[in-house]
User: Which sequence fits this backbone?
């Protein structure tokens, strides 16, 4: 059973940066795929970025490519999402998710979810 705990959300002005963290227990980054999703009010949960350690594969949504970076610290079993050049359109609850094997873009493929952390970008 993998448990995920996110942190790092908050309020930031447009153009600013935040770093989200997702600490995983009950599974190792070397064997699980991890991803970040986000959900804005009234919208469906959408894929942001994913990382599969075993295959060294990192994938980003087009909307965040070049601004967000997903990385991992194997020793701490933690995945990060560095978010730069934030815009009000990035405002959402951000969720960390994990699944055995390779990470994917599809919400329904993930077995484990964190509680979510709010990111609010003011204009």
Assistant:
């Amino acid at each position: 059973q993998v448990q995920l705990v996110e942190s790092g959300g908050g309020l930031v002005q447009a153009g600013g940066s935040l770093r989200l963290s997702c600490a995983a227990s009950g599974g190792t980054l070397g064997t699980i795929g991890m991803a970040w999703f986000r959900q804005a009010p009234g919208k469906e949960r959408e894929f942001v970025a994913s990382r599969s350690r075993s295959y060294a594969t990192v994938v980003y949504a087009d909307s965040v490519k070049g601004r967000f970076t997903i990385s991992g610290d194997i020793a701490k079993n933690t995945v990060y999402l560095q978010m730069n050049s934030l815009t009000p359109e990035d405002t959402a609850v951000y969720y960390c998710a994990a699944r055995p094997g390779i990470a994917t873009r599809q919400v329904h493929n993930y077995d484990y979810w964190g509680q979510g952390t709010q990111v609010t970008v003011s204009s």
About this structure: Residues 19 and 74 are 17 Å apart (CA to CA). DSSP finds no helices and eleven strands in the chain.
